[in-house]
Structure prediction request, 166 residues.
Amino acid sequence: MIRRGEQSFARLGRGYEEAVQLLFLSIGIDARLVGGRSDGGVDLQGRWRLAPERSIPIIAQCKLIEKKCPPSFVRELEGTVARLSDTLAMLVSSSDASSEALTAIRCSPYPLLFLHYSVEQPTLKAAFLNDSLLKRHPGLHIAHRHSQFRDPIPVFTYNHALIKPI
Prediction:
């Protein structure tokens, strides 16, 4: 079945990328949309301001999917980040990661961060980073903000300070 107009896969995917761009602003990432037919596996590219004096380059691949995120998406992202030096690669998915994908992230020699970002109630539901990222940026950590009305929300800290929105 071919979808047209507002429900086309391309339009839905671009809408998800735009939503992720807004999420990034809330966690201190200034990123521009790159995605397109020849995006080289990069949907967003920019810098994450961890602290006033510290920022790092990032690329992100966004996946608007219904099933759990598979390890093939991690391998695809590794292929993209392998061409770049000193860059954090983020895999942002509308669904949670499979256990195999989490294992692939954990074992990767590249600095990777997985984000489960729901568009239904725009919420960052989960975040997972690997040891390679922690070795390069040891002050970066994921904490959780608790609320009596919903599940804990991942928040990012750098050297024990909350990373500020842009």
Notes: The beta strands are 29-33, 44-51, 54-63, 88-93, 112-118, 123-129, 140-145, 153-158, 161-162. Residues 47 and 57 are 4 Å apart (CA to CA). DSSP finds four helices and nine strands in the chain.
